[in-house]
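Backbone-to-sequence.
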């Protein structure tokens, strides 16, 4: 069976986001995601995804890529966002992934959420097939079905957002990822969320400087939380990073890697922008 059978489900989306108006931005995205998953499960049951996992490409080690003794950037392919709208009109995930790999990215992240970020699972699958780097599925994972889907389409890791999950589901999704060989990036925004992530057994913690409930960005959040992350964990700084000095200061503070999307995608030449970030 060819895993490309999973791609047509992108065309079967139910209209959702425009109808969801209550709650914070995060609440609205999660609500839309749950509706999308319920729709897609009708087309692709978990048993099909489990078979797809058996046919998936060998895993690439996401954690090792972030643990190098260097400025490790997870370059993110992001077409649009709720805070900015359309970021990159000429969005070619294969060309972008190749150029960012050549510019020195340690790993690639691909947005696959459709309604708010204009992402597609196909973007991730195609980008990964074109490069040799580990690839993270960036999405709002709220159901084990999505973890199976991620591995069946060759993802090497996936995002778990602590603010969107209760403790039981967080632990379940983390354990399933490890069962499939994927170590997830567990995203936090507060000290309480760091505590919850560590209690669940997270090894890769991402501090998102963007508050997903208000969309405000404060790089200070990373400096406030880094002391709460044990040295044996991989610490990733996310959002609001624009200069080489941002990266070097945060690395000195204790961060191992940096997830950068909007800044790169907004540039005429994202690869050149990444080289500037990495160069002294």
């Amino acid at each position: 069976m060819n895993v490309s059978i999973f791609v047509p489900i992108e065309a079967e989306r139910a209209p959702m986001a425009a109808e969801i108006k209550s709650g914070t931005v995060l609440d609205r995205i999660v609500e839309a995601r749950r509706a999308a998953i319920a729709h897609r499960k009708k087309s692709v049951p978990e048993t099909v995804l489990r078979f797809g996992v058996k046919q998936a490409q060998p895993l690439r080690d996401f954690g090792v890529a972030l643990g190098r003794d260097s400025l490790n950037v997870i370059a993110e392919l992001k077409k649009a966002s709720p805070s900015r709208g359309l970021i990159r009109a000429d969005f070619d995930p294969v060309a972008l992934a190749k150029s960012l790999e050549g510019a020195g990215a340690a790993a690639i992240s691909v947005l696959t959420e459709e309604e708010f970020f204009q992402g597609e699972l196909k973007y991730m699958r195609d980008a990964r097939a074109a490069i040799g780097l580990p690839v993270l599925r960036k999405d709002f994972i709220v159901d084990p079905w999505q973890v199976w889907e991620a591995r069946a389409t060759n993802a090497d890791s996936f995002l778990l957002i602590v603010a969107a999950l209760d403790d039981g589901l967080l632990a379940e999704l983390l354990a399933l990822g490890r069962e499939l060989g994927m170590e997830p990036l567990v995203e936090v925004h507060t000290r309480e969320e760091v505590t919850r992530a560590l209690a669940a057994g997270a090894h890769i913690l991402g501090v998102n400087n963007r508050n997903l409930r208000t969309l405000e960005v404060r790089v200070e959040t990373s400096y406030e939380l880094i002391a709460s992350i044990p040295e044996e964990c991989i610490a990733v700084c996310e959002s609001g990073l624009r200069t080489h000095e941002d990266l070097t200061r945060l690395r000195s503070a204790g961060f191992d890697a940096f997830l950068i999307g909007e800044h790169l995608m907004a540039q005429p030449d994202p690869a050149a922008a990444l080289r500037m970030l990495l160069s002294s």
